[in-house]
Model the fold of this input.
Amino acid sequence: MKRRVLLGLLLTACSSPTHPSMVQVSHLVSGVTLPETVKVNQSFNVTFTTSTWGEECGTAGGRTEVSVGGLRADITPLDSLLPGPSDCMGDDDDRSVSLMFSGVSQPSVATVVVHSTDSIRTAYTLVTP
Done:
């Protein structure tokens, strides 16, 4: 009886909203998709799929850090992790980030970089005035 109660407590620790969490860079499981051409000062979406992995209980779909400077955007998807059983894994998560490039007076190529735990994926788009 004591073993079943302890096992139940361990399994529910993964989903406990009051349990302290850590943040980890996500694992990227798909390529980066964005339009071939975008207009200056108009937002567009960048999509990709991430997954949690490792020895902690993961919740995919945490926050995403975005930094845009000139014609380069850096995207870092993050997951919230709860310490827990090693077999408590998160699911794949489709993510979408809205970006916008400004200050372009002639057609220029912009670089979008997605940073993950195991790779860096780079995609390009043409920005037109």
